[in-house]
Amino acid sequence: MYFDITMPLTLFAVTLVSIFLNEKTEGKLKSTMNERQLGVWDAVLLVGVMAVMIYLIIFVREITLILMALFLFAYSMLLFTFTYMFSKNRWYIAIIPPAVFIILYVLLRDTAVWAYYLSNIYALIFAVLITLYLVSLFTWKTTAVFGVLLTAMDIVLVFVTGTMVEAAKVTTSLRLPVMVSLPIIPPWPGSGLAFLSLGLGDFFFAGLLGVQTMKRYGKRFAVIAAAGMSISFFLFELLLLNSLRIPFAGTLMIICGWAPLVIGKELHKKHAARQPRPS
Fold this sequence. Notes:
Blueprint: H1 6-32, H2 40-59, H3 63-86, H4 91-94, H5 96-108, H6 112-134, H7 140-160, H8 163-173, E1 179-183, E2 195-199, H9 200-217, H10 219-244, H11 250-274
Antiparallel strand pairs: 1-2
């Protein structure tokens, strides 16, 4: 029986980092975004825009250079924003991380050092930064709507049209850190080293669910939810590695570990509220 512990543990670790760092960053980030929050229709529109962008990546090949420029700009701004925030507004320090990132990408993107090490390191960093930057825009209600719609979109684009898989191939061909690719541990006997990949969107999704769970139920239950998502991911991986061996919707693997825990918590909360209190 083949199984993997690397990706589930990495997903768990990134989600935990997002949960525990959120308290240190949310207040400062909210002030920079003027306390804005997404409504339900904003969440619907966001998923729609994501679907359109995925189709454009596939069918408009000329967009690849624009895509590269957008990704590099967005990553650079994330690095600048967080460094500026934690360096006490020293812009001359904040420009160093994005400058280093751009230089490394330009000089090393076609090397094994970038492919196997730097790209993964930056992808994990960006997974956390994207989560911390965007999570304050979501409420519990918009998170639920966004989660359901994103999972539904992912299911259609992976299983029905295959568009998500093709889009991933296009973006990874640009050597952008949009995926985390890690070796399967334990290795498969006699097969050499094999790798599994997970997109930044899936890490962001798990981080968003983890942080919103913390806000609603506290840190302890958020850690339990993060563990649930990782265990669910591990079980789906077990099935994929031994039976299906096909591309799978990462959001579905994640939400199947989160939703039962949260639904159970909500039902228990409502049941407790109905119980008569001692006089």
